[in-house]
Amino acid sequence: MTTQGRALRRRAPFLMLAALALLAGLDAALLLLGLPAPVTTERLPEVHGILLVIGFVGTLVSLERAVALKRAVGFAAPGLLGVGALVVLSPTPLRVGQVLLLLGAVALVAVYLPLWRRQRDEAVAAQALGAMLAVGALLLWQSGVAVPTVLPWLVGFVVLTIGGERLELARIAMGPNAGRDLLILGGLFAVSVGASLLWPATVPLLGASLLVLVGWLASHDVARHTVRSQGLPRFSAACLLAGYLWLGVAGATWLVGGAAGDGARYDAVVHAVFLGFTISMIMAHAPVILPAVLRRPLPYHPAFIGPAVLLHSALVLRLWGGDALGASWAWRWGGVLNGVAILAFVAVAVWSATRLRPVARRAPGSTGDAVVAAEGAPAGVARAGVARAEVARAEVARAEVARAEVARAEGALVRDTDIAVDSRPASGIGR
To answer: Torsions phi, psi of 372, nearest 5?
Structure first.
């Protein structure tokens, strides 16, 4: 068996655990929408949000971090999170699953420590702070705190994780002080998360800090330029910018409306963050992250566009027609179509990985000569070439900075080799 085959065989089970958590979460979403679902249990609707945020997103993030660590002990985090999600679904006492999920989140924090010592990177520090918020969320949930009260902690987990990821991917375009700025803004947001638990009246400040953070991310992200490119870079950039927009919607809702434990405002915040932002970011990065984790190419195809457009269109239907205007049919159909969009994206990804062949490509019109293949080059060589291409393009023109993201995205497909290089992380909740 080849090295690629062994890596796929070792890591695919963790991905399957995440997939099971996703399917269970979508099943629970149907129940919450008042619709029939393939599986019906009393516990499913209650754990819908935890399944998707911690069981699905948390397992993906921790798997990618374990691959970056390149130590067997790192895989304890995705194993505990994935198995914990399954136990939460089972008739086993809920506390058992809660403990496993908590241990998995603690293990994820522990994985970030050697990654931090390796590079002293602010991006890793931001992601570690996000993992600490996940630990806090699970401690609160295990202590009997309602999920709506825990919501800001879960939001902090995904926002800081993805924010750190964007810093890793687009560091040159973001500038030399980007790491410091992200840590400051992320730290302020984390403080506001804690304050919202102690003093619910401070939730508008939480919304304001989130708006500042997402405004900084959107204004510094190279996606502003790559959206004018072609193929995968344009698709990824569109998903990124749409995700930032939805995160801004959540921040504005908190700022204007304050805390909400249920109802339309709560529904809007939850799904703007965990569907509009998180799932959109996962769609943007899947062609880069999954090949690095599984050592199997995931070539881009225009078919990826359909599920992404459906995701955001359905979310507009749900939040505007359902939450804002009060049309129950829009709320319900928007929720159903969101689930369809996620499953359609998974189907396209599987088809791409099994049927399409990766090809070496050059960013159209680029000034650099780097040709980055989808699989096979040593990670250190690929990253060095990408960095040189990025610098050259940034010096030529703003538009050429966009193509730096092209090369970096494609170069990431070969990052997971025997050369130790820090990798990058991936990412609905209803109750």
So the answer is: -110, 115
Q: What pTM value is reported for the model?
A: 0.82
Which fold would CATH assign to domain 16-414? Cytochrome C Oxidase; Chain A (1.20.210)
- Structure token pair of residue 186: 């992320």
Hey, where are the domains in the chain?
A: 16-414
- What's the angle, vertex CA 32, arms to CA 26 and CA 35, rounded to 5? 85
Q: Is the pLDDT of residue 392 over 70?
A: no
CA-based R_g, the chain, Å: 20
* DSSP symbols for 113-146: HHHHHHH--HHHHHHHHHHHHHHHHHHHHHTT--
Helix and strand counts by DSSP (H, E) for the chain: 18, 0
- Map tokens 């990177």 to a residue: 121
Element at 252 (helix H, strand E): helix 231-257
Residue 239's nearest CA partner among 203, 286, 202, 291 is: 286
CA distances from 59 to 149, 315, 377 (A): 23, 24, 28
268-281: buried (b, 16+ CB within 10 Å) or exposed (e) per residue?
bbbbbbbbbbbbbb
pLDDT per residue as tens digits for the range 214-235 = 999 999 999 999 999 999 999 9
Backbone angles phi, psi at 35, to 5 degrees: -115, 155
Alpha helices in 55-202 (DSSP H): 59-69, 76-89, 94-119, 122-142, 147-169, 171-174, 178-198
